[in-house]
Amino acid sequence: MTALPAARHSVVKGWGGYLPADIVSNDALAKRVDTSDEWIASRTGIRQRHIAAENERTSDLATEAAKKALAQAGLKAEDLDMIVVATTTPDHTFPATATQVQAKLGNTTGFAFDVQAVCTGFVYALSVADNFIKSGQVKTALVIGAETFTRILDWQDRTTCVLFGDGAGAVILQAEEGAPDKAKPGVLSTHLHSDGRFKDALFVSGGAGSNGQVGVVRMNGQEVFRHAVQKLADVVEEALAANGLTGKDIDWLVPHQANQRIIDGMAKKLGLPGERVVSTVARHANTSAASIPLALAEAASDGRIKPGQLVLLEAIGGGLTWGASVIRW
Ligand code: ACO
Fold first, then answer.
1. Residue nearest to ligand 1 atom 22, measured at CA
2. Pairing label, strands 140-147, 167-177
3. Residue 5 — pLDDT band, cuts 50, 70, 90?
4. Whether 150 and 219 share a structural domain
5. How many domains is the chain partitioned into structurally?
6. What average pLDDT is seen over the chain?
7. Does 286 participate in catalysis according to the annotation?
8. Are residues 130 and 224 in the same domain?
9. pLDDT for position 6
10. What is the CATH number of the domain that holds 159?
11. Most buried among 114, 134, 248, 294, by the most CB within 10 A?
12. Is position 119 annotated as part of the catalytic site?
């Protein structure tokens, strides 16, 4: 009888974030569209966003974040078996942005591909990499969320253009022996959902396979808000229950950064005080797939998230897609 393959789990070994240099405040935006710092900040918590330079591509942002994650993990590009980039704003329709990150890092031995789940993209990419590791197919995976989201905005539409920004964040996962164990560091579980019936709540008005245009973001903000509150609450409960945890066990909530009101609502549901929630939305705005890994990188680098602590990720985005993950750091 052939022996069953040994169980494995993935452990976070490195992290890094990158934000473009150009910062645009709400006041600066108010000179371009009919809005105000007061309106944007009171509805969303956003005060500013970073915007990529004209010659900066999503793969450039991703590569900068990846370099920091590699350095932090003490690894080299050639150590990577797999590169997954979650993005809605790829450099090109093809090839995958991940392949360009691979080339820019100087890796030729691994494989690279993109994952598309809009603002839930990082949780999806993390889940994909975690499962490749658990299956034994890869040992070391680079997982990136990267966006030049401001390039798909309609700058005449004040209901959407004030909400988003550009950036990238990355983590490195590595295989360790044994099944996930909630007492030990590692990705404990990932939980993914989608429901394509809600496409019209949040979509882009173009595509290579429809009108051959890139298109711009269209959103029914109130509908997305309603879905966000319910679906995030459900998936967080699912993630906690799967691990025999309650909200009180969580050391850090690292949510998708779309709106401070949604973040506060989730923290309240979990019974977590604001001091245990990582919030970057005021400074980064909504960077879609990049928002969670940017927040993770910031809080792990400044010493808020400490080894051994329990971290809960959650996100919702176009599709609709939504998901969560529990990680022992
Ligand atoms: N500046 C000034 N006024 C504005 C702006 C703006 N930027 N945008 C809209 N308004 C006006 C509207 O025209 C409307 O005016 P009216 O009453 O005269 O018609 C008024 O403000 C209220 O508009 P609402 O859409 O009702 O504003 P609401 O309080 O719902 O806030 C928001 C809008 C912030 C988008 C909210 O619905 C929201 O946060 N939704 C969640 C969606 C989200 O976060 N999306 C991000 C992408 S998806 C994701 O990442 C999950």
1. 159
2. antiparallel
3. low
4. no
5. 2
6. 97
7. yes
8. no
9. 82
10. 3.40.47.10
11. 294
12. yes
